[in-house]
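Q: My labmate handed me this sequence with no annotations at all. I'd like to see what the chain might look like in three dimensions before we decide whether it's worth expressing. Could you predict it?
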Amino acid sequence: MREGGVNRVLTGLAGLLLLALGGSVLAVGLGAPPPHWWIHSGAHDVLLSRAERTRWRSAGWWWPAVIAALAILVLLALAWFVSVLRPRRPAEILVGTGDGEGARLRGRALQSALTQDAARQPGVAHARIHLRGRRTAPTAAAGLRLEAGVAPATALHDFTARALAHARRSAGLASLPAEVRLGTARHRAGRVT
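A: Here is what I predict for the chain of 193 residues:
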């Protein structure tokens, strides 16, 4: 499963858990009988009694432990948030030069060259390509808008045999997997008189 899918599943599970907990609190607050796993059973029972609230107040470790635990939770949430928002585009691609040293190719340069090659392909009205993955194993996500009357199989074959193969050879990559989405260019309907 891809990372985006894992994030969606974890977010969905957290949402369902919070929805179930919040719904049960609302239902009990409105007078429904509490479920068997409910913490308190009395109608006038409070969530934390005075004794429970003041139980650890005199212990010197309590408040630093609570603050440290909350700080760790906030830092973990921020790290997850930054990792979700971080662009997955490789800034550089490592290119094998044959001398054992290697070179670095800017990811945007390869992306731009691949986009221009694809746009010059016959039958392609517009091309948009993004590089993803790691710098040692990039992948391409291509969107090609085809002109009317162009066979999708021909356009796909031309893209993989020309633009994609040229980019792979130029960067010295063993492979450059691509996900290609094809669409048709919109055109105005002709007028019949």
